[in-house]
# Entry
Amino acid sequence: MRVVFLSPAYPPEMVDYTRGLVEVGAEVYGVGDTPRQALPPKVRELLHDYLQVPRIMDEDDVIERVSTWLRGKTIDRVLSNWEPLVILAARLRERWRMPGMSVDTVRGFRDKQLMKERVKAAGLRVPRSRRVKTEHETRAAAEEIGFPLILKPIAGAGSADTHKVTSKAELDAAIKAMRGVPEASCEEYIEGEEFTYDTISIGGKPAYENVAAYLPKPLEMRTLQWVSPVIITVRDMFQPKLQGGIALGRKVLEALGMGDGFTHMEWYLTPKGEAVFGEIGCRPGGAHIVDQMNYTSDIDLFREWARVVCHGKFLAHAPRKYNVGIVFKRALGEGRITRIEGLGAWLKECGPWVVEEKLLRPGTPRRNWKHTLLSDGHVVVRHPDWDEAYRMSFLAATNIRMYAEPPKSSGGATEAS
Ligand SMILES: Nc1ncnc2c1ncn2[C@@H]1O[C@H](COP(=O)(O)OP(=O)(O)OP(=O)(O)O)[C@@H](O)[C@H]1O
Ligand SMILES: [Mg+2]
# Structure
């Protein structure tokens, strides 16, 4: 089986999907904008061939180049697990009349307004929302929807430019802050807890399902620097409070015409117990959630995904053994990481339940927490009992501290005395 896999080395976890494809017998043709020599050696060994394109986001250009490159070869699949490339993969499939989701179907997973319209048309609960382009439209929509509301870009990611608005003054401020955004969604604010619903589906039916809890909700993770974001996969998927969200998720897959592959949905659980749709992508979640799901059941979903998209089969036995918490840390200060406090005590306290410790080491430049949820590294801890997994995750959130400092200036400057 010949598979074209877009961007096989970026983001870094794409290397694991490439590995999965090879393990189920695929010959993988990679396409990306990383120069061949700069590909990680591991992925270079896995790829049957690789085409470097100048701009991977330039869909028309990539389609032309890939078509020329592969002329005369039979290709069986075109795949992407990275959100910005899912439409490009669908366009290539349509051009080559190949199995897989169409451009129109994939748009339902990509355009946030269209996805809500389609989900709502299936009779499912979505936040009331309006597509707005001008200040006038925004004010009219706010009037109609009422406070509190959410203003966010239609093509958003990483909660960038997302504002919770609770008053007229906050609306004025949000409108000002969003001047550069061409098109926004003005939405009813949904109070409550926030969860994921992840699947690997075959013909839109989940062969694998997962729920994870966001602690706190992503908007707060992304706007409050002092927070150490925690995400915990839920071992017990049969507990009553999650049933509404799981049922919602299954119906959303049907409403949007999901085919084969990963999905990552976000949903809200209101204080009254109602499950409300947030958003969905037809690709895996980022920020190591696939690793968390693997640790939850001691399985390899990178390979199982590949088996599903190549052969239509999910063969892993996936008992839910653990609640798996990931905790992202953010250093205090700017510049390079200088020290980590509390790590030794936490490792000792949690012992064998710790499965990963990948905090950036002293000397490494700290990352911009606004740009990546990955922040300055993470720890992963798991336990069969929810309360224990929760306790150990929050112990890491509060007791591990990282510090950064700007490099000391050199070059002979003397301090003023
Ligand atoms: N209608 C809403 N009610 C309550 N909270 C909301 C609403 N819309 C967005 N949020 C908050 O803002 C966050 C970001 O919104 P959304 O997921 O739609 O955008 P995003 O930028 O694609 O997110 P990401 O890429 O981080 O998943 C949500 O996870 C949620 O915490
Ligand atoms: Mg989101």
Notes: The first strand starts at residue 2 and ends at 6. Residues 2-100 form a domain with the Rossmann fold fold (CATH 3.40.50.20). The chain has three domains: 2-100, 128-188, 193-404.
